[in-house]
Structure formats: structure tokens, C-alpha cells
Design a protein that fits this description.
Two copies of one chain form a homodimer. By secondary structure, chain A is α/β, with parallel strands linked by helices. Chain A folds into two domains: 8-75, Arc Repressor Mutant, subunit A, CATH 1.10.10.10; 82-195, Rossmann fold (3-Layer(aba) Sandwich). Chain A has eight helices and nine strands. Chain A has helices at residues 8-22, 32-39, 43-51, 65-75, 91-98, 135-141, 153-165, 192-204, and strands spanning 29-30, 63-64, 82-87, 107-114, 123-124, 127-131, 144-149, 170-173, 186-189. In chain A, the strands form two sheets. In chain A, strands 5-6-4-3-7-8-9 form a seven-stranded mixed β-sheet, sandwiched between helices. The N and C termini of chain A lie far apart (49 Å). At the A-B interface, α1, α5 and α8 of A face α1, α5 and α8 of B. The structure holds a DNA duplex (24 and 24 nucleotides).
DNA sequence: TAGATTGTTAATCGATTAACAATC
DNA sequence: TAGATTGTTAATCGATTAACAATC
């Protein structure tokens, strides 16, 4: 669908635009300037980002909110439901099971895994925890295409290998370590240490 | 200290370099090429990033690991300890209290806050939860310069205002909403929804 | 000295911003 | 029509990559 190669930052902004207009009610029409103000960017940037995917606005008018919302949802692949598995049911894994950013129609947590025998068979938020060795089998059975790694750093690579075997297309990695995956699999690292450390850098300069 | 304006991505990579060489043992000397291989970038990028801050290597040799580690720690402001407060002791907040990326010498969680009376006075991982109204007072008493927001979206702005009043210099926001803070305060959004949605975009294209 | 690798400059690439003709 | 705002092109800005003299 995209007409040129789309920068990743553009995709990230689309997600942000979508959230901004979700919270919107009433107004039928929105200009690129108004949307820009909502998310803290420029009108040109908004139009440029959207232009990668087509023409969604009306010159002289703006964008019909309902239509724009639907278009962005479609672009982002949010008009169907993704099956998700969470691996590593420690504090963070358990927290993500209920985190509102995760628990939404578009994303359905369909399996949870851990290595620790004492956690197996326990039910967390309606999902029964299974042993990591079952990952490949369960993933294909339940059409799970996204894996979330919340294990300690030491297990992350091993888990990534199992997820790959299970046929996931994308991995969200919270373990504080770089892992390698086959190039067909999209890997996103959420590196909380790094976030804190860059914060430290910028604060450091202030003293 | 920096000789020119430093791009944020450079600071992020420094954090990644640091973690890579932390896990290293034995070898006394490391070349930019070796470090690049460890983190998946180029040798030139490594040298460029470091060059913003000084000359840490020896031409013809490479970088002394121990020295490099110390220099990067210093650049990132990790040679002292930052006081942290976590606001919103739901699943995610409680998880971060023990997350290894957070629980480290350089970062010390010194306070936890919630609005829910039923949580107040309870002790989580050795930290007594206090009412959010005490934020300004407690923050200045305990030298807390970083605030972490793990509340629902609806309370995030209110909490940010209280953190600002308490004199934090940086905020890490996990609430799925954009908040605004005085410009002296450095704001980092960790947007898990957005991460999942961009993953969805790239997977969508594969079908 | 010869070989290796740094620090840095110049060339390239890509994303953002500015500007405006086209269009409602 | 006049006014407003889009979609898009050109200009600018900034980051990455290539290349090499300086240096151990």
C-alpha cells in the first residue's frame, strides 16, 4: 500500500495520531494543524506522514475524523486481531497481562509461558501458564504471531529461538539484553535501562 | 563536556555500548570494530559517538575496556546515585520496583505513591506507599530527581504536575497519554501501545 | 619500521520544514 | 467567488557512512 519506503518514525507517529483522535468526540472534521497541535508536531509533518499511504483529506476542509481513524487503523493493521504470547510470568509479565496498552481488542493474549515448574498450570488473568518447551506447539495451534519476552536476560535468547520455531512474526523484547532473530522476524527492544540512562545523561548536564 | 550538540541517538547508543562491555571479561583492549559487532553497528559510528565527548582510545590499539567503561558511566551521569519515585502502584508500578533495569546501584527507588487509600501505608519491596498529595514534600526531603508515572491515563497529568512541584528534573511516563511538563523537565514517554502498533504495521505487510 | 586503529573531515543519505499550486 | 486547507515539490537540516592522515 505505501507509495514509497516509509520511515519507522512515520509509523510511530501514525500510532500517536490514532490515539489522539480516539480521545476525540463531537467534531466531525479536523485539520492537519489541529491534529498537529494535539500531538505536538507540525501540520506539514501530519500531511507528509499520511501522504505515504494515500489521500485521506479534503482540500480546503480537512480530514473527516471517523474516516481518518478507520484509515489509520487499517494502515497499522489494527482492523483484525493479533494473537500474543507472553513468556516469563514474573512481575513484569504479569503486569503486562493487564496493562491497558496491551489488553485491547486488537491484541489478544492467548498464551503465557514460564520455565519455573511452580508457576506452570497456574491461571493468571484467565490464562493458564505453560512450560516454555510447549511454545512451538501452542503458538501454531493458537495462531499466535507476536511474542513478548519478559524473562531475565539469561533466558531471553533461548526463548526467542523457541518463539521463532513457533512461527511468530514479531517479538517485543523487554529483557535487558540484545537478542538475535531470523531476519524475517521483526524485533522491537523495549529497553527500560536505556531510557533511565539517557534520562540520567540529560539531567546530569543540568547540575 | 560535549564538544558539539549531541544527538539523542548517540546517548542511547552509549548506554547500549556500556551494557555490552559490562558483560565483557578478560580482554583488556577492545577495538571500535569489536564493539560495533557486539551491538550491531559500524566501527565508524562507535568512534563518532565517543568523539563527541573526548579521545578515549589509543590509535593503532583500541580502547582499554576498564577505562572506556568508566568514561561512559561518567558521561551518562551514572557515577552517582539518582533518587527515584514511582507513582501508581498497580501491577506495572509494582513490577518496576523489582525490575533489574531499574533496581541498580545508580538508581535508587526512594518513594512510592498512590491515590488509593487501600494501598497507602502498605510496604512494597521495602518502600512504604504514601498518598500522592505528599509527593512535593517527600520528593524534596529525599532528594528525588526522577519520577516514574505508572498511573492510569486519567491521572497522569495531575501526577506530572505534582512531580514538577516536587522539583524532579526528569519524568519517565508509562501512562498511555501525552502529558505536558515545564520545559526544564526532561520527559521520556515509554509508549507500549505504540510499540505494539508499529509491530502490527510491519507484520501486516507480510501477509 | 610495518601494521593497525584511532579521531576527524568530506560525501552521502534520509528526514524535516517551508512554500505553494491545486482543490474544495 | 473568496477563504481555507490539502497534497506535493524543493530547500534545509542533521545524522550516517566512507575515507584517510595522524599516531601508537
Amino acid at each position: 500500500m505505501p507509495r514509497f519506503k516509509v520511515p519507522e518514525v512515520t509509523v510511530e507517529r501514525l500510532s500517536i495520531y490514532l490515539r489522539a483522535i480516539k480521545n476525540l468526540e463531537g467534531d466531525e472534521i479536523l485539520s492537519s494543524q489541529e491534529l498537529a497541535d494535539l500531538v505536538g508536531t507540525s501540520d506539514g509533518q501530519v500531511r507528509k506522514d499520511l501522504a505515504y499511504f494515500g489521500e485521506f483529506g479534503v482540500p480546503g476542509q480537512g480530514y473527516r475524523i471517523a474516516k481518518l481513524k478507520q484509515e489509520i487503523r487499517h494502515i497499522l493493521g489494527l482492523d483484525s486481531t493479533w494473537g500474543i504470547a507472553i513468556v516469563g510470568i514474573g512481575n513484569l509479565g504479569a503486569a503486562l497481562l493487564t496493562y491497558p496498552g496491551f489488553k485491547r481488542e486488537e491484541f489478544e493474549i492467548r498464551a503465557a509461558f514460564d520455565r519455573d515448574e511452580s508457576k506452570i498450570e497456574k491461571v493468571w488473568r484467565g490464562i493458564k501458564v505453560q512450560h516454555v518447551d510447549k511454545i512451538p506447539k501452542v503458538l501454531s495451534e493458537r495462531q499466535i504471531k507476536i511474542g513478548v519476552i519478559t524473562t531475565p536476560a539469561t533466558s531471553a535468547q533461548e526463548v526467542a529461538d523457541k518463539l521463532a520455531k513457533g512461527g511468530v512474526k514479531g517479538i517485543l523484547n523487554f529483557a535487558p539484553v540484545r537478542i538475535s532473530v531470523p531476519k524475517e522476524i521483526r524485533l522491537k527492544n523495549v529497553d527500560l535501562s536505556m531510557q533511565l540512562e539517557t534520562l540520567s545523561y540529560f539531567l546530569r548536564k543540568l547540575t
